[in-house]
Specification:
The complex is a heterotetramer of chains A (436), B (163), C (205) and D (374). With 163 residues, chain B is of the alpha/beta class. Chain B has three helices and ten strands; from the N terminus they run H-E-E-E-H-E-E-E-E-H-E-E-E. The mean pLDDT of chain B is 87. Chain D is an alpha+beta fold and 374 residues long. Chain D is 47% helix and 13% strand. Chain D contains 15 helices and eight strands. Chain D has a three-stranded antiparallel β-sheet, with no helix packed on it. In chain D, strands 6-7-8 form a three-stranded antiparallel β-sheet. In chain D, strands 4-5 form a two-stranded antiparallel sheet. Chain D is globular, with a radius of gyration of 21 Å. Chains B and D meet through strand 2, strand 4 and helix 3 of B and strand 6, strand 7, strand 8 and helix 12 of D.
């Protein structure tokens, strides 16, 4: 039996020191659970809030503008002000709407997202409930969001909302499959569903993380990232609330605090998604150079583990925000097509690959480490190419376009043949496709 | 321009009125009876092949009690242009619709009907295009009096007197 | 087999094109933003940044207006109103010189017609008002004699651009001023002009 | 209407206040779920009666109205009006004014295509290209503000020439902008033009074959995308275009997809922006000295007659049919606009599309409400 180092340990400790009778022990357990739930809820609410500010900053900076910088030091308290504004706004219910369903929908979404935080391991000790079936619990509870979105789509008695709700039902359910497959592969590697064990199996150094375990898990990470973006209804899969097509999708009729429920639910979902990705692929709170067991005693290493976990989660969030401001939106049939034609086959292939790999290569042997290093080199090469391309773009157009500056540099205005448009798909696409 | 007119006249068998004394583009005037036939000939005749209906306009000419329906044609093949008019009476303006010849005429004719009141026979769905369905009167007529209000909304803007 | 090749080709193309897009957006994180943070954090007031021909709110410098009303006629939507009346003693006086900024479309046709340049486009644009009625800008408080400009002589010196507007612009929340035509000043009584005053201006009222 | 099983058809009112109808337009969309049976455009919300106003203003004071027929192509509209009146009057426009008009027109074309491509990308979900293109458009607006004082409705062309000569240093600034422009287009191309998601959203969507395009009167980039190699600037040269050489992009030739689909329209517009930059370079080099305004009679009273003058606007042929009766106010002025005929084609293209495709078709056809309703 693993030493349980979550709430049960805490409750056990309290009951011992205060020698409580069974009745009072239950009361103490209830109080502790409520307290921990409140702390986790508030923590994730703040993360979601800061994430809304971070999204607007990232959006600003990627679009060569500034983003909110008036409220708080660098606009950091913008989300507090937004929250107050949303509370003060009138959240009316359209009279033709289905009242109870309309009011219940946001709470289902929030419930679905926040309860997933119960099994997210912030550090070796800091975990609300270290269930043995942690990964399965997360996969199950996040599909509550579908019910909430579908309910809001139907209840607001608005054609746009109905279309948005139905689209999201199809999208989230079908993207559960590749997400579940990739989680299952990691569970296959780690040997247990519990999140703490999954992290425990990985090491602190990058080549010990599961993402660089083999090229299959490397590809699997991107499949997991894409399908969890799809579950979070974020661009490029944000069909249910496509502003340009469905006005505002399922939350067209919502306003004020109810709309804030959906809004926070979406951003909390982004945070939960990157937290799970960190746990599964990036070795969670593992501190490089320190084995998982020695974490228990010193407070410093626990704190360091927490900081490392939050850092990795925030990098994951940045990637999701970054994708939002770069990619266009898929169409509904393409969305389904990509899932069934690309994501599910690749997820299956990677799972088989990982299984065969585990069969052929004994863990810890020389070829195993070699494969880790090769995968890590592959990842590093991708990053280097990306940053070389970034440098090229940054230098080509430059930042602030003040024409006077360009004039001083004496740039003449002949036609610059060196700048050619890179045509990837120059070949004709196999004859004329049937016109729609 | 002249040979286009001669080809058209020969195709239609009747003499076509031709004006080039005024400033700007010369134009041909076709009697209303022959309007659809002339346009069909303009498109199908090998020497003309006007496949592009560039513009179709209605002009109200109260002086001669007539509304002119003007058509500017263009041919991508021969790269030449041609202007053709027909005059319909102002009191009961009816003209043949050109939609069977050029689908582009559909909206042009709906707009002319809407703003000038010329009814086009043979038009698939002749109803007002720009103004609301229950608008009274045809604004582009010279003698059009602007209604004081439309469904309770005054149509006059506070003028200079109360500034 | 072709479709298998195309399958992987699509994946490769997606990765390359999406990756290039990601590179472009990431490159903007390392560049300075383009925003001029008007109104409070711009380096210098935006009015000063505008180029010399920028067509802002119209400004009439009454000290060199000859009352020719060419501008009122040139305006397509009759936004300028200039009224000149004859005063027996002081000669022709401008009793109404107003521009309705709420309807002006800044087309500049009036400024091209004005010979002495009395009517110009200033670079001002900050005229947010509570009610559109306070956007009717009146440039005279009491009737002003018109200016006579001889042929060939340069027009009188004009005030610096925008100064008139900044001086006369009401506060956004002030009630719209009561703007009516300015009555002519009362005719000075003839101060028992000696009977032998010049008989030729027999037309005294 | 309900079918045998009792399923009802959804009638969606897309507009007049909808994020992706450019301007105030309404589409009555008959769909069952996503696939559309028919989309009927309802227009007229932005009808200002400019043609009636034209009968009450003088020839010069109509130019601000001409700018407002299509505020994204203000230079083209006032240029067409000026050309019409000049042909009636027989006034000869000095060479420098013609070249200045060409420079202003091509700058305006780039600014308009910035909005067009930006809106297509934004309607398909990518917000960032729109902001980059708006940054370029802001630079062009600054250039115009220096030239004639306005940023959107310039009121720049006059009958017989142009209102202002280029201020000193302005031509170098235009040169600097154009020098940078190819790099900006390369960056936009890297960001979005070959983006697999965007390309797939537009491949084979809303196809208008060449015969339909000509029959329904499509013009400009929409016509060229449909495969008809036709450009007024090259085939019916006017103003200072005969001396300048530029390539006319035609859809379906390079790149992917079919001629006439949305992606062909995107590729044609993108290539046109680069060609406009090339045109401006040649125009800057060929700018002669001299007056900016031809000799004009004191009062502009064109003789009795009628004329049709057309200009290759950013959206295609923008023509005015001007009838004058010898007085100083026009007798009748009819504007031929490209969005009008493009909008009349929506009913033909829309059966079978999905709602997301209708949004893409409207955006790539670049229809804009003021030009449809006038």
């Amino acid at each position: 039996m693993r030493p349980d180092n979550d709430i049960r340990a805490l409750v056990g400790y309290i009951v011992e020191t205060w020698e409580l009778s069974p009745f009072w022990a239950d009361v103490a357990a209830a109080v502790v659970i409520l307290a921990v739930a409140a702390v986790v809820f508030l923590a994730v609410m703040t993360f979601a809030g800061v994430l809304t500010w971070a999204e607007r900053r990232v959006a600003g900076r990627t679009q060569s503008r500034v983003g909110p910088n008036r409220v708080g030091p660098i606009g950091f308290l913008q989300w507090v002000v937004d929250g107050v504004k949303l509370v003060l706004k009138e959240d009316f219910v359209p009279d033709a709407a289905d009242g109870p369903l309309f009011r219940l929908a946001p709470y289902l979404v929030i419930l679905g997202v926040f309860s997933a935080m119960a099994t997210v391991p912030f550090s070796q000790v800091l975990i609300a409930a270290d269930l043995d079936v942690g990964a399965l619990f997360i996969m199950a509870i996040t599909s509550l969001v579908v019910v909430g979105v579908l309910m809001s789509g139907w209840a607001s008695n608005n054609k746009w909302a109905l279309l948005g709700g139905v689209r999201s039902a199809a999208q989230i359910v079908s993207y559960e499959v590749p997400a579940a497959l990739s989680v299952m592969t990691i569970v296959l590697l780690a040997g247990s569903l519990s999140m703490q064990t999954i992290i425990g199996q990985q090491g602190g150094w990058p080549w010990e993380w599961y993402i660089f375990h083999s090229p299959f898990t490397f590809v699997l990470f991107f499949v997991f990232l894409a399908s969890s973006i799809a579950e979070g209804n974020r661009i490029p899969f944000d069909l249910p609330e496509a502003e340009s097509e469905l006005v505002a999708g399922y939350n067209t009729e919502y306003s004020g605090m109810r709309w804030a429920g959906f809004f926070l639910g979406e951003f909390a979902n982004v945070y939960v998604m990157s937290a799970i990705a960190t746990t599964l692929f990036f070795g969670g709170w593992q501190v490089p150079g320190v084995a998982a067991e020695e974490h228990g005693d010193s407070l410093l290493i626990q704190g360091l583990g927490l900081v490392i976990f939050l850092g990795k989660a925030w990098v994951g969030c940045f990637v999701v925000l970054w994708a939002r401001w770069t990619l266009p939106r898929l169409r509904v049939d393409q969305l389904m097509g990509v899932c069934y034609r690309y994501f599910i086959p690749i997820a299956f292939a990677c799972m088989l690959g990982v299984a065969l790999y585990a069969l052929v290569v004994p863990a810890g042997s020389l070829p195993d480490v070699a494969v880790h290093l090769v995968t890590m080199a592959m990842g590093a090469a991708a990053v280097v190419v990306l940053f070389r391309r970034v440098g090229h773009h940054a230098r080509s157009v430059g930042d602030r376009i003040s024409l006077a500056e360009v004039l001083q540099r004496g740039q003449r205005f002949e036609f610059d043949p060196s700048v050619q448009l890179r045509r990837y798909g120059a070949h004709r696409r196999g004859g004329a496709r049937e016109s729609r | 321009m002249k040979e286009i007119r001669d080809a058209l006249a020969e195709r239609l068998g009747t003499e076509i009125e031709w004006h080039e004394d005024l400033a700007g583009d010369p134009f041909a005037v076709v009697p209303p009876g022959k309007w659809l036939e002339a346009c069909r000939a303009a498109r199908d005749d090998e020497r003309l092949s006007f496949d592009f209906l560039r513009n179709q306009t209605g002009t109200d000419v109260p002086a001669d009690e007539v509304i002119e329906v003007v058509v500017h044609l263009f041919s991508y093949k021969h790269r030449h242009a041609f202007v053709m008019k027909t005059r319909v009476s102002r009191t009961d303006p009816v003209a043949d619709s050109l939609v069977p010849v050029w689908p582009a005429a559909n909206w042009y004719e709906r707009e002319i009907y809407d703003l000038l009141g010329v009814r086009f026979t043979g038009h698939p769905d002749l109803r007002r295009l720009l103004l609301p369905e229950d608008w009274v009167g045809h604004p582009l007529r010279k003698d059009y009096a602007r209604p004081e209000s439309y469904q309770g909304i005054p149509t006059t803007r506070p003028g200079k007197e109360d500034r | 087999m072709g479709s298998i090749r195309e399958y992987f080709e699509t994946i490769a193309r997606s990765v390359v094109t999406l990756g290039d897009g990601f590179a472009v957006t990431l490159s903007y994180l390392f560049r300075r933003p383009n925003t001029i943070q008007y109104p409070d954090r711009s380096t210098r007031p935006v009015v000063a940044m505008l180029p010399e021909r920028s067509r802002g709110l119209i400004e009439i410098d009454v000290t060199c207006c000859t009352g020719c009303m060419l501008c009122a006629r040139a305006c397509p939507i009759d936004v300028i109103e200039v009224k000149v009346e004859k005063h027996p003693d002081l000669g022709r006086m401008i009793t109404r010189s107003a521009v309705d900024w709420s309807k002006c479309m800044f087309c500049g046709l009036c400024t091209e017609v004005c010979e002495t340049g009395a009517l110009r486009h200033s670079h001002e644009f900050e005229a947010g008002m509570a009610s559109p009625l306070s956007l009717v800008m009146d440039f005279i408080d009491e009737p002003v004699p018109i200016v006579k400009v001889k042929k060939g002589e340069p027009p009188p010196e004009r005030k610096p651009l925008g100064s008139i507007i900044r001086a006369r612009l009401p506060g956004p929340w002030d009630p719209p001023p009561e703007r009516r035509e300015k009555p002519l000043p009362p005719v000075a009584p003839k101060a028992a002009a000696p009977a032998t005053a010049e008989p030729k201006d027999g037309g005294t009222p | 209407m309900t079918d045998a099983v009792g399923r009802e058809e959804i009638v969606l009112n897309m507009g007049p206040h909808h994020p992706s109808t450019h301007g105030v337009l309404r589409f009555v969309v008959y769909t069952d779920g996503e696939i559309m049976r028919k989309a009927v455009p309802e227009v007229g919300y932005l009808h200002r009666g400019i043609e009636k106003l034209a009968e009450q203003t003088t020839y010069t004071s109509f130019i601000p109205y001409a700018d407002r027929i299509n505020y994204l192509e203000a230079v083209f509209a006032s240029q067409a009006w000026a050309m019409a009146v000049e042909r009636l009057l027989g006034v000869e426009v000095p060479k420098r004014a013609e070249v200045l008009r060409v420079i202003a027109a091509e700058l305006n074309r780039i600014a308009n295509h910035c909005i067009a491509l930006g809106c297509v990308a934004m309607d398909l979900g990518a917000y960032t290209p729109f902001i980059y293109l708006l940054r370029e458009r802001e630079t062009i607006n600054d250039l115009f503000e220096e030239l004639c004082g306005a940023r959107l409705t310039f009121n720049y062309a006059r009958v017989g020439g142009v209102s202002h000569d280029a201020p000193d240093g302005w031509l170098d600034k235009v040169g600097a902008f154009v020098a940078r422009f190819d790099k900006v287009m390369a960056e936009l191309h890297a960001l979005i033009s070959e983006n697999e998601i965007l390309v797939n959203r537009m491949l084979g969507v809303g196809v208008t074959c060449a015969a339909d395009a000509v029959a329904y009167g499509l013009v400009g980039p929409n016509l060229r995308a449909a495969g008809v190699d036709w450009d007024l600037r090259r085939d019916l040269p006017y103003s200072a275009y005969p001396g300048l050489d530029f390539a006319v992009p035609v859809g379906g030739r390079d790149g992917r997809g079919v001629a006439g689909d949305c992606y062909a329209r995107w590729v044609v517009r993108e290539e046109e922006m680069r060609q406009s930059a090339r045109l401006i370079r040649q125009a800057l080099a060929a700018l002669p000295d001299g007056p900016v305004m031809g000799e004009l009679p004191k009062k502009i009273k064109p003789p009795k007659g009628e004329v049709y003058a057309a200009v290759e606007g950013a959206r295609g042929e923008l023509g005015v049919y001007l009838v004058s009766d010898g007085s100083n106010t026009p007798y009748r002025a009819k504007w031929r606009s490209s969005s009008f005929s493009a909008m009349s084609m929506i009913e033909l293209i829309s059966p079978g599309l999905m709602i997301a495709d209708l949004v893409a078709v409207i955006a790539t056809l670049d229809t804009i409400a003021p030009e449809v309703d006038r």
